[in-house]
Specification:
By secondary structure, the chain is α/β, with parallel strands linked by helices. It is built from eight helices and eleven strands.
């Protein structure tokens, strides 16, 4: 699981990251909301732990931006503010939980684990990106109105790419969420299946822009903008 910690107090941020690493989470750290948004564009996170009061861009603004873009990642807000109104503002902005400072690290870890156990927001029956459309109810895929025949694994891969469009997904992330396997650093399973689905949804439709992009050294993403 990938956790993003957004906290401008660097010592606290690193303490939180170290504590969450004990639970075998992959932890990334950002020191303000703008940096956090940039990291979310580059990778997938399963939970965001975010302070409210930060320079440059505060946590509430960042949270609102996430939700407006359709990002449903669970968010645990950290705040030194004890007023009920501040907690309500956070929950109204789309937070899933909050924890007032100062807090105990074991409670923070427990809150994060609880968020990971929650069922994720239900996706609509039909999801799409550009001319690529996925019918999740009937497990079918079309591009520009034409059906695309895929295997069960290819379907899961495309569904995950569309769900996380414009986000760079590493091979480890794809293995975990599509194949439910740990990344061993050797297998070329992901690259093989990326080639399969690229042939079916990109090369088979020369009149449409290619959507499956390789981000050198980082992974893959679904985007109309080609990467260099």
């Amino acid at each position: 699981m990938n956790i993003l910690v957004v906290e401008d107090e660097k010592r606290l941020a690193h303490n939180i990251a170290s504590a969450l690493s004990i639970d075998a989470f992959n932890v990334s750290v950002a020191f303000d909301g703008t940096e956090a948004e940039n990291l979310m564009k580059l990778g997938h996170f399963d939970v965001v732990v975010m302070d409210i009061m930060m320079p440059n861009q505060d946590g509430l603004t960042t949270l609102k931006n996430m939700r407006e873009r359709g990002n449903t990642t669970p968010v645990l807000l950290l705040t030194a503010l004890g007023e009920t109104e501040d907690k309500v503002d956070g929950l109204d902005a789309g937070a899933d939980d909050y924890l007032a400072k100062p807090f105990e690290i074991p409670e923070l870890r427990a809150r994060v684990r609880a968020l990971l156990r929650r069922p994720q927001a239900q996706l609509p029956d039909t999801i799409e990106y550009d001319s690529l459309q996925i019918d999740r109810l009937h497990k079918t895929i079309t591009r520009a109105g034409s059906p695309v025949k895929v295997s069960a694994t290819e379907y899961r891969l495309l569904e995950y790419l569309v769900t996380n469009s414009e986000v760079v997904l590493s091979e480890a992330d794809l293995l975990e969420h599509v194949w439910d396997q740990n990344y061993d650093g050797i297998s070329n399973l992901v690259s093989v299946y990326i080639r399969y689905v690229r042939n079916k949804v990109d090369k088979a439709f020369p009149g449409e822009p290619p959507l499956i992009q390789t981000v050198r050294g980082l992974g893959y993403k679904l985007s109309k903008e080609a990467t260099s």
